[in-house]
Amino acid sequence: MPSSTPSATSSATSTKAATPAVQEPRVSSQPEHPKTSSSLVGQKSTRASCRPQTTSTCSALILNCETIENKIRKNIQHSWRGILKVCQEKDVSKLGEIPVSDFLDIAEKFNLDLSEGEINQITTKYDLKKNGRFAYYDFLQSCILLLKPQESSHLQRVVIQKPQKPMSPGPQTTSFFSAMLRIQPQILHCWRPMKRTFKSCDESHTGLLHIADFIQVLHEYSIDLTEEELFNILEYYDKTLSSKISYNDFLRAFIQ
């Protein structure tokens, strides 16, 4: 067909211009093949180039959140009681989460000094259920309690010794956080002598105390737990029901 021949030739020529490294013969009977293969190669290369960008974006988001939390940690530690009280008032269903809009008001009220980008990253991280709500208990515990082991440099002085066996903790429930947050000010006030008392009771030097001895030491420092609080703390620190608790793990949650 005279009318179709120039278009086929021009399409083959344009394909060659787009991919000069591939030497394709001019075959007028199959003009579509070079165009199709080059377009597929273009799609694959485009998709491949997007994947590393997504990974780096996610890792940058996590890194920035850690920086933000370190920035506001001291402020949170001074005003966490007020923040928790307001959050609990807004959390009518007692689910440990509030609407993001309520958190924005709380952040402004307690002068957390967060930029718009920092607020977006924090609210994205603690929207655990991806439902537009802010998990304030998880946010507060990450800024106040140290329940996850952290890597320390060799030059850093060790305040609380790590246990010989790594801890396998139980569930981090809302009731557990409430109990730990309630006694946090008292623990910070007397943790050094309490640590010495724990060690003196640990005659075998295993880093573990029977629950009765653990409760007695807390009582000596005027820290009295309710039955519910004790149950939730033991559920976390004595998941295997060994009737023993690692006092170093317990103290490390409060000392940062």
Report on the structure:
The protein has 256 residues and is mainly α. Among the domains are: 56-144, Orthogonal Bundle (Recoverin, domain 1), CATH 1.10.238; 174-253, Orthogonal Bundle (Recoverin, domain 1), CATH 1.10.238.10. Helix content is 61%, strand content 4%. The protein is built from nine helices and four strands, in the order ααβααβααβααβα. The strands form two sheets. The chain has a two-stranded antiparallel ribbon with strand order 1-2. It is elongated, with a radius of gyration of 30 Å. Residues 1-51 are annotated as: Disordered.
Task: Provide a quick synopsis of the model.
The protein is mainly α and 256 residues long. Helix content is 61%, strand content 4%.
Total number of beta strands? 4
* Rg computed from alpha carbons, rounded to a whole number of angstroms: 30 Å
Shape verdict: elongated
| CATH topology group of the domain at 56-144 | Recoverin, domain 1
Main sheet? 2 strands, antiparallel
Please provide the ordered H/E string of secondary-structure elements.
Answer: HHEHHEHHEHHEH
The helical percent reads 55-70%
| Contiguous uncertain segments of 5+ residues | 4-20, 34-60, 149-160
Q: What is the arithmetic mean of pLDDT? A: 75
Q: What order do the strands of the largest sheet run in, or round the barrel if closed?
A: 1-2
